From TrEMBL:
Coiled-coil blocks: none
Keywords recorded for this protein, A-Z: Membrane, Transmembrane, Transmembrane helix
Location in the cell: Membrane
Protein name: Protein DETOXIFICATION
Family (UniProt): Belongs to the multi antimicrobial extrusion (MATE) (TC 2.A.66.1) family.
TM region positions: 116-134, 154-171, 183-204, 210-234, 255-279, 332-354, 374-393, 405-429, 435-457
Amino acid sequence: MGSWEEPFLQGQLGEEEIQEKVGFGRRFWIESKNVWKIAGPIIVTAISQYSLNAITLTFAGLVGEIELAAVSVGNSVISGLAFGLMLGMGSALETLCGQAFGAGQIRMLGIYMQRSWIIVVTTATILLPIFIFAPPILKFFGESTDISEAAGKYSFYLIPQLYAYAFNFPIQKFLQAQRKVWVMLWVSVVVLLLHCIYCWLILFKLRWGLIGAAISLDFSMWLVVIGQFLYIVYTKSEGAWTGFSWLAFKDLFNFFKLSVASAIMLCLEFWYLMILVVIVGRLENPLVLVDAISICMNIQGWDMMIALGFNAAISVRVSNELGAGNAEAAKFAVVVVTITSLSIGVLAMVLVLATRDYFPTLFTHSEAVARETTRLAALLSLTVLLNSVQPVLSGVAIGAGWQSLIAYVNLACYYIVGLPLGILLGFTFHFGAMGVWGGMIGGICLQTVILIIIASIRNWHREASQAETRVKRWGGTAIADH
């Protein structure tokens, strides 16, 4: 590495000085290495943890159609609702931990994580009735009786997973902000391998059915939580973890406000395509359509894990650089990550189209479900392309602390434009599942365009100044004095 490259990586050179020393291509390469060091392990971690659900769904589909529908609805609707809310509440840490780390306030990270635990565990407890009373809730939204009852039985036994989410997401944001992403990778991969073994044992050998499927997921998620937390306690995370502290209860209200804004922003995104499964359940022949949509959402979910890796990477890069006062470095990181993620999205789109006649058979033995899934593959390919860009832009918003603004954008694009358009095309114009999905894709397109405009016109030097103010206001000085 040349003499100028190290300070560049640390954001210590001004933008004009950097441009004098290197061209765009060299800067792009250096920033890409920074991004992939974070994104690569996070992508593997996200895919591994998502695959816990996907593998369970695959085993359930091989058991029977009703099992496939029940696990799909339970994971995507009931557990998916909690997943979005838990991830959203925990994502406040991406802003706070990332900017505190960039500003050198290392001890703040452990306090932030404990504050997040208090808020997110409380939120999980509030969500309990959704898991307990899942059958009537699903029936109210038009899901068939058979699917509602089976999904409700499955969801009730997922309650331990709900609390695993509440601890896991703050832990992961804590580790991500410090770029300690390899420990997340190894824990997740080991748990995934174990999950494959006992999921096969429980569902195929012991034949515990839906209850066994839920228990396997509960156990795996808690293994992830315990493994990561033991690492934090053992290593002290280089001073970021100093044990439990009463300071975690300080300034909870302001922390809660940012957590709620983060939750609303991300939940409006996560719930959007989740609602697709519920709406399709109101069409004719719902079992086949729900199974087909579920398979597509499973594929889309795997692709989304790649995008979430870049979402986390750009959130870390933006929050760290803004916390350190390096506005231009943060802005350039946005350009690099967007181009990289879009390129991967194009490859994913081509892969879906090339395998549309084959991948459905991995999830079902039903010819009717496989045919419907193949028919929906074109919309799936467009969705994975859009989802290569949209999560990255959301990560920029989280890293910079724009959650409240983006929440309004998501509400308008998804639920005022996209969702009504999908219902209109699907039911009024009788385009069925393709109409519902196509209309909702319109909302994603609109939101992506608006996010690009917002990121382009923001004053990044002012964002860096606001990050410094946020770190000081939310306890940095107090921790140092303490």
